[in-house]
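so ive been stuck on this for like two days lol. basically i have the seq below and the ligand is flavin-adenine dinucleotide, smiles is in there too. i just want the complex predicted, nothing fancy, no docking runs or whatever. if the output looks off dont worry ill sanity check it later, just need somthing to start from for the group meeting slides
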Amino acid sequence: MTSQTLVEQFRQDIGDVSSTVDERQLRQKSHDFHWYSPVLTPQLQDCLADVLVQLRSEEEIAAVVVAAVKHRIPLTVRGGGTGNYGQSVPLKGGVLVDMTGFNKVTAVESGSIRVQAGAVIGAALEAALASGQQLMMIVQTDDLWITANFKETQLARMHPGQLVEVAVDALHEKLSGTVESMPAVTGSRTSVLPPENATGNYVKVIQRMPVRIRLNPGQKDLGKLRPGMSVEPKVYVE
Ligand SMILES: Cc1cc2nc3c(=O)[nH]c(=O)nc-3n(C[C@H](O)[C@H](O)[C@H](O)COP(=O)(O)OP(=O)(O)OC[C@H]3O[C@@H](n4cnc5c(N)ncnc54)[C@H](O)[C@@H]3O)c2cc1C
């Protein structure tokens, strides 16, 4: 819990940014759907923010963060508050930041869309449809991996942690990665119609097995990768 004096100083520092200490609103916004859980409910039901701010621009976000740091007040960010595990509950009071007003669709391009952090997926979908496109899925592009379908005969000396050099057809540069996990099953076994080799003349076919390669973070061209692109990984097994 933050002292009233500190909260007042904080509110003065953020100037025109919309803020309230109205208890009804604080109580309403300090909780998400954690009440689904009989374990979390008694732990979180009394948690309450000391002040609620509603943000509409990057300048306002900066002003709130600067003031919170200056007064060493904890800050909890919240979107729609539909998380089920108390993620947006202010455990130690302080500032609750409501991002739902920061919700503009800022750019619709061919194949991609850019929205502010508080935008709901429905708004992104509407903007995409209005431009004649569909929002089929949301692709995370900052944490990337490759599923490399190696032949089973190539796996004997492969194991997690090994360095991988990845040539990407769409890029001129090679990327680096790390073997993250070894396969649990062959690709054919998980296909819609797995082959059944027990009948007729049996011809042995070398199976492909999916090895997950995590691309090392911080590389310049990672942002250019898209799901489904062709790559050639080379694993250093020594
Ligand atoms: C009935 C029901 C059905 C659901 N079904 C699904 C489902 O099918 N699939 C699914 O994935 N989830 C589902 N959920 C969970 C929940 O709806 C999603 O996780 C939703 O994406 C949470 O978004 P939110 O804006 O409400 O986040 P919040 O609950 O407001 O916040 C979630 C977390 O993100 C942080 N956060 C919020 N905004 C920001 C920001 N701008 N910057 C940094 N951190 C931020 C918060 O601090 C918190 O830690 C369901 C929930 C309910 C109640």
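The chain has a mean pLDDT of 90. The pocket of flavin-adenine dinucleotide is lined by residues 32-33, 76-84, 87-88, 99, 117 (CB under 6 Å).
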